[in-house]
Every structure is written in C-alpha cells, then in structure tokens.
Write a structure and sequence with these properties.
The structure is a homodimer. By secondary structure, the first copy, chain A, is an alpha+beta fold. The first copy, chain A, contains 13 helices and 40 strands. The N terminus of chain A is likely disordered. Chains A and B meet through helix 5, helix 13, strand 37 and strand 38 of A and helix 5, helix 13, strand 37 and strand 38 of B. Strand 38 of chain A pairs antiparallel with strand 38 of chain B, so a sheet runs across the interface. Chains A, B: Pfam families: GH97_C (PF14509), GH97_N (PF14508), Glyco_hydro_97 (PF10566).
Chain lengths: 703, 703
C-alpha cells in the first residue's frame, strides 16, 4: 500500500515539477522503506530520463542519459522499451575488517532494457537500485553484431539539481585529489580557478568540473553525495557543473595518448553512479551504499593481513630532518642542500622505530627511501626504469631488519614509490611482492607522485584504473595488502578485494609540513569526513604531537593535540599511523590513547555532525568490546554533550577523556591538553568543550 | 673568629642550661658552617657527657654515655682524659646510583681518648663528627690485656631532650618495623600499647622504646631525627623513652639465646649514633649524613646492576587471586580454600608479565612463589630446611623463562623467602646466587617473615645483623644486588656495599590489601618520608591503579590515584615497582607517568613539606636531564604553588601534570584524575589542588 501511495505522490510531483520536455513514465522503483524512489522515463524522442524522489521531495529532476562513441553514432535518443525486470535483494555480508562487521545490503532494483528503434538497433540496459540510504544506476552494453568492443568518447549522465545547494567540492582534477575542499553554492563552483596549485606535482583541470564524492546540502537541510561505485575497467567520472542550470553532467577522464575515454570489450557494464541521500549529515557516514554496490569478497580468507597501528620513517623527511635518497639531496619533497641532514632509512634508524613500535604495541613500521632510485625520482622527464623495488640502499640491511622486526613482533610495511611510472612498476611487481612475502611483509604503501608516464595518460583514466587494479590483484597472489597514495579514488572495491586496505587520495597530513598556503585549515577534516571518507578508508596519518613543527617555522598543524587524537576514531582506516617522531611522543600521556585505540570495528555510530563544522563518531572495537569516541570541530569552539546510550546495558567502562586544555587554540596554544580518568556506563552523559580547531577523544575500556 | 664566638656562646648556654651535675668542659667541635656544636664533658665522677647546640639553641642537654658488660665491670664513670684529636674532612664522593650523584662529606671531628683512672685502666675512645646537617658519635674499644673480645649487655647512650617535642615514632620492636607511625608528645610515647598487632607475623616489644629513625619537632619548629649509621657486627639500637625526664636512652636488641646484646672482638667500634638537625623539615630528606658516616664503596664498579622499574607476580597473591604455593592453599598471607584460585608463578603467567614489562620499558619482573617450600612456609614451628632456593615448582620453567625474558630485554628478579630461617638460607646461598648468575639475574628480593629460628634471636639483633651482612657480601660475589624485606633497618651501608639496593622495613603497600586496621592512613607516607626514608631506599611498591581493590571489599588504598603516581618521586628507591595487575593498567593514560619517571637521580630537591602533613620533591634524572616532581598530602586537601626555579636556565620542558580530579577523595572518589599537558620553563609557577589523601606528579621532559 505504502509503495502505491508513494508512486502516486511521485507522479503528482512529476506533473508539478517535471521538466518541460514531454515524456512518459515507464516505471519506478522504491527503496525497501519507501524512502527513495527512482522514476524512469522515455521522452518523445526516445531519450532515457530519470528523476529521484526522497520522502515526497524531488531531489533530482528530469535528467537524461546517453553516450558518445568513437566509431559509432552516439546513443542518447531513439530508444524504445524492450522490457523491465524488478528485483529485490536483502543480504547480510561480513567485512573482514571495517567500520562495522555486518553490513546489510537491502534494496529494490529495476533493470530497464532499451533498444534503438532504427538500425543498428543497439541495446542498452540500465540497472537501477533504490536503497533507503541512496540510489544507484549503471549502464550495460550488450553484444553488438560486428563489434567486439566499444570506444566511449563521453558519457552524458545528468544530475539535474532542484536547488542552488551548498556544495563541498574539489576541482575535477584528472591527476590528483589533493586539493582543499571548497564550500560554495553550486552556482558559484569555479574549478578552473583551482588550476596550477604550487604544491601539486601533477594537476590537470580541463573543465569546470568537480571530483567525487561531492556532497551538498539543500536549503531544506537534505544531504546529497554524488560518487561512483565499483570503478572497473573504466575511467574515473568527474562531474561538469552548469552554474546556471544547476546541473551536473558526467565528464570522463580521457586518454590524450589514445584519444578516447574508455575502450572496453562487449558485453560491458559501467561503474555505478551513486547518490547518497540523508536528512542527517551523519547518516552519509553510516551509509555502506558504496560497498554494497561492489562484488562479494573474491579473496576469501585474508587473515594474513591484520588491521594495525604503525609508525614510520616518513614524517622526519617531511620535516627536512632526513632524506629519502642516500645522497641526502631530497627532503620534504624539495631538493635541499644536505648539510647535516642524513638518509632516513638506515638500518640503525629503522631499528629505533621498530623498538618504539614494539614498546607501544604498534604492529607496523613503514620505511620510505629504503630502495635505490630516489635521487632521480622527481623533477625528471624520463623516470622509466629509475626505481628499483628489489635493491636496498647500501645502508639498509633488509634481511637483518626483517629478522629484527620479527623478533620484536613488528611487521615492516613495504614502500613502493613508482614516481608515476607504472610500466616500470608492473615489470617488477612479481619480484617485488615475492621479496615481501619472503621477508614476512604483508602490506605495501605505493606512491604515484608526478605526471603519468606515458605522456597523455592521467591518474584517473582507464589505463591507470586498470594499473591500480592489476597491482591489487597481483599483490593478493603474494598475500600483500595495498595502501595506494596518489591513487584512483576508492569506489568500494575493498568488498571485492579486501587487500585494498587504505588509500590517500586527499590532502593529507603531509601538506601541513610544507604547503605554502598555510596547511590544511581546521574545516578540512570536518569536510573530509562527509566527502572523501564516503568513498572509503583514508590513510591520513594522524598523531602529530609536536604541532608547532619546530623545524618548520612557517608551518604548523591547524588542529589542537586533542583533535589529533580524535582523528584515530573519526577518520577511518584499518591501518592508522602514529606519524610523529618517536622522540616527540616521549613523556606524552596522550600517547596512551593511540596505544589503546582500536583499528577494527564491530560497529560505528555517528553521534553528531554537520558538514564542514564538526563531527563525533563512536566505534566499538571487535573482540575487546571496548568503545572509542572521537569528536572534532572546525575553527569554531563548541560545547557538546555526549550521551553514552550507545554503550551496552549494565557494563562499567574505565574511561579516559582527552580534551582541549582550558586555553587551547589551534594557532596560539594547540598542545594544551587535559586528560580525565573516570568511569562511565550507559545512561551517563558528559559535556565537553572543544577549542577552535579542537577535539576530544575518549577511550572506554570494558572492565 | 666565628668558631671562637660560637664557642663562647656555647659556654654561655652551658652555664645557663647546663644540667646540675658538676662537670667541666673538656672540648667542643663545631660544624664547618658553625651550625652545630658538640660539647664534651667529664663529670667529677669521670662520667663522659655531651651536649649539642644548634644555632645557639641547646638541642641535647647534658647526656651521659657508658656500657655494661657480661664479664667485666661496667664502663660509665671513673674516666680521665688522655688526649683529644681534632679532624677536618671535606670530600666529594659519587653514588653509583642514588638520590643524587655527588655527595659532599664535610665535617669537623674530634676524637676523645679516655682511660679508667683505676685498674684495669681500660681505654675508651669517643669519635665525634659535627656536620652542618647533624651530629654523630661512636665508641671505640681498644685492645685490653687479657681480653680478645667484649660482651656488651647494655649501652647507655643518653639523649636528653630539651622539651616535650612532638614525635613521630614506631615502637621499639625487636622483630619488625612494620607498624604505623604514631604522632604524640614525647611524654605520651607508649610503645607497650602497640604490642600484639594482629597483622604481624613476629613482633616483640619488651620496653617503652622506639625504633629509629625517630623524628621530632620542637615547639620552636626545630627538627631532630635520631638514628644510627653503619650498623656492623653489633645489634640494633632502640631508644628507651623516659616520659618524665624527656630522655631517650639506647636500648640494644638482645639475644635471649646467647644471653647478651653484643659480642665483638677487640679492637671494635660501635655504629654511629646520629642526630639529623634541621630548621626546615625538608632538609632532613636532603641530608646525606647517614651515608657519609659509612665506609667508601668496597665493591667498585657494579654496573651489572642498573636502577629499574619492575612489575611482578605479587599483588595478585595479596588480592587473593593467585597463590605462592603450587597447591593453592596460601593467598594474601592467609590460608585459603583454593577454589578457582591458581598458583601465580606459572611459566605462562610469568610470560604475561614479561610481555607487559617489555611493552612498557620496565626492566624487571619479580616472580614470587616460583620455588618449592611454600606450603610449609608460615605457621609452623620448625621451618628449617623447608625452603629450597634452587628447585622451581613443576609449572615454572626457569630456563625457558630466563631465555624468554632475555629476548624481550627484561630481567627476572629472583625471590628468596627464608621464612626467618637464616641458617637454611646460608647453607644454600652460594648455590642460589650461582643459579641466578647463570640465568642472568642480578637482583634478589629476600624475605624474613616470621619469628627467627633459632628461638631467642630477633630480626634486629647482632646475630641477624651479621646474617643480613653475609647475604650482601655473598651476593656481591655473584654480582647480585639485594632488596631485603623484613630486613634490619638501613644505616647507610649502601655506600660501602652498593648492592644494598633497597629494603622494606616499614609498613608497605601490601598492608592496604589485607590489614584489619583499615590499611595505611593518608598520613602514613607523609610521615615515612621524614622518618624511615632518612635511613635509606624503600621498596614500598607503589602504583596501584585499581584503588578500590574490587577483590577486597573490606580494604582499599587510602590515597588517590594521583598520589600513587607521586610516590615514584617522593619515596626513593633505585628499584620501583609498578605493583598493580597488568590488566588494571590497560587504557590508563596515567601509566605514561610510570613509563616516563626516572629511577636514578642527578640531584633531588625537597620543595616543601611538614612531617606527617605533606611533602613535595623534585628530582633530576641522570643522563636525560628530565625532571620529575611528586607531591603528596595527608587526609587534608591542600593547594600548593610549585615554582619551577629549580629548572636549568633557558630550557623548555614538555610537561605532563597528573593531579587529582575535581571531586577526588581518597575514600569516596580515589581514581578521579586529571592530566594536563603543557610546556614549562624556569621561572614558571603552577598552583595545584591536592585532594584529601591526594597528590600530584609532574614529568618534565627536556625538549
């Protein structure tokens, strides 16, 4: 009955708000609870069209769909209905690691089969899925006589907004996602103005487009986030912005080398185009829509990888204290005059980090700059064959270190910087992953700094999408998990390939050490939590305690120390770095929180939050049943009351509350911290002050 | 010139305050700065007498000296002056470990040689030393014709007080020092009333006497502490109290078995009788008088022992969670019905503690109950031959554990409970210490619970004094350091034998787990710091975090959690235990303080303090230059302002302040703790609130 009413409602709305083009409703599908409805139409010219209704409110007005090809006519009109299939699915699947253990995949679907009225009568299927937390659709290209593949020049998927929403966006860069988020009305989005960022090794912004996830809030307070799921053998989708019409249109990353966007053999499906829809901002974070739209686990048991906290030889390079290259000419991404700066990845220094990790129960030690090639890794046109993923520098005894780490119960995290020369990397992949397996390493951080070689390819194009995928599949053969930096954006692939453990793909902590624009502002992470984080785990590398960055007088972290702690809960990743120097943790009681905090979760709850302003998340650790809470704010101080109703009945928790000191401020007094030890149970509540740029973290240890 | 004036002064005072007995000043000696003066007299009857003057104030009025022997006439009068020798010494010596590195031994001395006027013309020398922080004297017995030894029945050394001072005292128990301190006027000291304490395995209080150190404060605010130094081949001295005359008289512990107090071959010297004198209570703690009166280091380099923090299988027995004996019949010193209680010292449980120690940078793991004998260790008349110091229980693999500990960089601390059967222990000493050396153990905790076997001997008599010494000397041969429980009181021997690392000899933490009198009251440690602690290092075993003692509903620690932290600085020992269960430290940010706090000091400063009320001590760690501050209070809340003038010029310290939570109280809310992180430099000051039974601890890590 409810379904019927909603259908009537939606019809009604179409009559009222429907675009002027004359069209007829073909069919509609509504989410299990009736929250979201997708309507599909065909125009008189046979153009496929759709609208999205959320709780009686039109959120996407009539929007068309279509494709342009290299060697065929475009496919956007002249289509007629062949058939409609309705589907219902309700499954529960388990994440081997994640924000929660059990995930419910519950939707109602519709497959619309279309056919060209005139020859060559090409067929096109459109798959729709209506979830209570959003909607998704994708295109299916069927066999065609005389064509074993298609070459897509452009995809025209429209998202017609129904208002001039507030948008949190980064430019539609084909090479990198490491920009600050902008907060503007859709009508004011200007990606072009974001070209030529001085701190980006590779950036290309051809259009006034945005990258996904892009999140918006309507004047009525409804939240929308646009992204894609299961990006496989296809190029990344940016969204071109029509500032007047308030319309987003898919704009695929091209290969200038090959002269097209996507080439794929038939039959083929595109990635899912997704819209997460939520009245409450926090529901965007709790949504598992993106993972649900991916294929089930293909790797089976991956117990060889365990979520962990790690330290590493990394931050000291960004502070200019040591270098990646043996000759000590590279630090903080810049060429330096060595002076008394030394190569970071020495056997001795690595052991120092291993000792620190062991003494604090951290599982991993990342070592960057261990292998040859770093002296030509950046600022050179031809970087093919420069990096060697097998050969350590002369001062790095890989065997001795692996043994030393093993005896201390610590695992070395491998590092593979490709300098955006993927062909060189692919040649060595087998050997490189084999070396890791032989030395008991089960995770690798990969990097793709710089412009892609060959010229004309971009990080987010199909060619690189397939490279990133190849690395994951190859790594899995050797029981290696991948944490890619300068990656393709996550699209939920971790469900299918759970060795996809984390990724960068945003402006991370490192920018705070050297960005010439003053580093990440306090609003950065309160935006990231509602944008980039909807795509998947983030290797943000929190945990800077020496926030003033003594070695970098012009830079400083724009958060308080308490917020650095909160990030271990707020920003999800199965691997979390304690990125500061061991000596900077000495004598810091706040270190206890990093020692305690979980990295693998039974469940997660967003207690409060507004995009770009603040967010508080509570997560229950698997096995232990301990809970951890993290809250962060932007440049504004706030007072929050946390209700501990999420705790289990009748259990008392040993709680430690880490919060901003009385006079804490992200600029003037970032390290003022107060830690309070107390006992907390369900029903208790606590009011906490957050300083400007501040935060808080709570550990709740089950007694 | 100054000396002369003082001499005149002292003469003047003698005329005014001198006792009525007619006597003549023989000579006097004054401390280097002229602070303290000792006057020596002979009465008309040839009785040796002395007085002590401090800053023009008589602190000890005319007091006589003398001895009674078994087979000779007593020697207390009829003496005439033979000769007087004046000495001056000013040396600086180094403590291999200690409250400070360099110690200045600066005094002016006088040796008075006396001789009986009539036959047998026995000679007696009295050595006096005047320090600016106190005075000391001892007796020297010279060769006598026809006597190669003397047998002392009693020593009559008087200390005639000049007022009814407030005294902090424990009864003159010949077997144990584990009583609570009493605070009364001297006229009200009643040791007899302290007999038959229900929680003491051996106690014998024959007289209205007190044990030393006993500390007093005069109405004018002057502090005196009476003790002895270099107790060698002699019996311990208690001080008999004359409540009317306000006089203390030495009362030696006797051997009822042998029928005398001391037998010693000639020539011989007695221990030093010492009086520490201070206007400011804190100066008593800063005084190194006791160590200065001992012989120089006889062992030389003892780098095989390093000061350390340690954990151990110990508190869990006191909580009744596990047992010393394999059969699980003994817990918390009481016979129990095993039930699901298990033997504590299993290989598996020991490894758990080793892992915890390694993960927190603690150097040692104490394992009690590892060896056979525990099922007959207490409550049996004949305990000779019961304990075996070589044979582990069947569930304790000593070799495997030693190897496991070694690989984790942790050292096992051996445990030797003798159940007060020293002859059994002496038989096995060589084998026992050899076993330790073979397994890389360099320290032992020894115990002497119960009444001494053979009957008629007491813990504090000459026979046991020599046993404790023998253990130290024997242990040193095998590079073993000794931490004796139920020991003879420390008398500064650690200077001569620096493997004398620590000792119990007071009512320690363990009483809080089961004492039927409600445990140590909040004033206990503010008294201990000015009494027992003047004798030497204390193995108090601080660090209980689960203060409510969930397993012991009738018991609880009478301090706040913050005070437990403060004790690591306030109560000095080169080995400091983190005595609580590993699980009780989980998730506690306060653990960071124990991880950080030093155990070996370059210098120590008492910032404030009043006996029995409160005390704050700051100590600088050797090598690191880090500073740590601890402050504790009694049952009264206080506010203190700490000035950080003791810090070096121009250095900034990363400070963590651990203090009582707003509503903290040692009974109702002992675990409320606040930790504040800040930066501190010389010249800064901080006002801190201490809760009833509370305290605070500050770590200052050099940046």
């Amino acid at each position: 009955m409810k379904r019927l009413i909603l259908t009537l409602f939606s019809l009604l709305f179409i009559l009222i708000f429907g675009s002027c083009a004359k069209e007829s409703l073909i069919s509609e599908v509504t989410s299990p609870k009736g929250t979201n409805t997708i309507n599909f139409f065909l125009s008189e010219q046979g153009e496929p069209m759709y609208t999205i209704i959320h709780e009686n409110q039109m959120v996407i007005d009539t929007s068309t769909m279509g494709f342009e090809f290299k060697d065929q006519e475009s496919l956007k009109s002249g289509l007629e209905l062949l058939n409609i299939t309705k589907t219902v699915e309700d499954e529960i699947w388990e994440m081997p690691w994640g924000e929660q253990k059990k995930v419910r995949n519950h939707y109602q679907g519709m497959i619309v089969s279309l056919k060209e009225s005139k020859t060559p009568n090409r067929k096109l299927n459109i798959h729709f899925k209506a979830y209570d937390d959003g909607v998704a659709f994708r295109y299916e290209f069927l066999e065609q006589e005389g064509h074993d593949s298609i070459t897509i020049m452009e995809e025209h998927t429209e998202f017609q907004l129904t208002g001039d929403h507030t948008a949190w966006w980064i430019p539609g860069d084909w090479d990198i996602y490491e920009q600050l988020y902008n907060t503007t009305k859709v009508s004011e989005i200007d990606a072009i103005s974001k070209r030529d960022h001085p701190n980006l090794a590779a950036t290309y912004i051809p259009e006034n487009a945005v990258n996904t996830p892009v999140t918006m809030r309507s004047d009525s307070g409804l939240h929308l986030s646009f992204h894609e799921a299961n990006l496989t053998d296809y190029s990344g989708m940016t969204l071109k912005v029509d500032n007047e019409a308030l319309k987003l249109t898919s704009d695929l990353v091209h290969s200038d080398r090959l002269g097209y966007a996507v080439k794929t053999s038939l039959p083929a499906v595109t990635p899912w185009r997704t819209i997460q829809i939520a009245d409450r901002a926090g529901d965007l974070i709790e949504s598992r829509l993106i993972e649900n739209l991916n294929e089930p686990n293909k790797l089976g048991d991956i117990s060889w990888f365990s979520p962990m906290k790690y330290v590493g030889i990394w931050w000291e390079m960004h502070l200019g204290l040591s270098t990646w290259d043996l000759e000590a000419t590279q630090a903080g991404g810049m060429t330096i005059d060595g002076g008394d700066v030394k190569h970071g990845a020495s056997t001795e220094n690595t052991k120092r980090y291993i000792d620190f990790a062991a003494a604090n129960g951290f599982g991993g030690v990342l070592v960057e700059g261990w292998n040859t090639g770093w002296n030509y890794w950046i600022g050179f046109e031809d970087r093919e064959g420069v990096f060697d993923f097998i050969t350590p520098y002369s001062d790095y005894d890989l065997g001795e270190i692996s043994e030393y780490a093993k005896n201390k119960g610590v695992e070395i995290i491998m590092h593979h910087e490709t300098s955006a020369a993927p062909r060189t990397y692919e040649k060595q992949m087998d050997a490189a992953y084999k070396l890791m397996q032989e030395n008991g390493m089960h995770s690798v951080k990969s990097g793709y700094v710089g412009k892609i070689i060959p010229k004309g390819e971009y990080h987010h194009g199909q060619w690189m999408v397939n490279h990133y995928r190849k690395a994951l599949e190859k790594a899995a053969e050797y029981e290696v998990a991948v944490n890619a930096h300068e990656p393709i954006k996550p699209t939920g692939l971790r469900r299918h390939l759970p060795n996809t453990i984390s990724a960068e793909g945003l402006r991370g902590q490192e920018f705070n050490a050297w960005a010439t624009d003053g580093g990440n502002p306090p609003e950065h992470l309160p935006i990231v939590a509602f944008t980039r984080m909807l795509a998947g785990p983030i290797d943000f590398t929190p945990g800077v305690f020496e926030i003033a960055l003594l070695q970098k007088p012009d830079n400083q972290i724009n958060t308080t120390l308490a917020q650095q702690l909160a990030l271990y809960v707020v920003i999800y990743s199965p691997i979390q770095m304690a990125c500061d120097l061991p000596e900077n943790y000495a004598g810091r009681p706040a270190l206890q929180f990093i020692r305690d905090v979980g990295v693998d979760w039974e469940q997660s709850k967003v207690l409060n939050g507004e995009v770009g302003d603040f967010v508080t998340i509570a997560r229950e650790e698997r096995k232990s049943g301990n809970w951890f809470v993290g809250g962060i704010t932007d440049e504004n101080a706030r007072e929050m009351t946390i209700d501990f109703d999420f705790l289990p009945e009748g259990k008392i928790f040993k709680a430690a509350l880490y919060r901003d000191g009385v006079d804490a401020h992200y600029r003037s007094n970032p390290q003022a911290l107060q830690i309070e030890q107390l006992e907390i149970k369900k029903g208790d509540s606590k009011t906490i002050k957050l300083a400007p740029g501040g935060g808080f973290a709570i550990s709740l240890i089950a007694k």
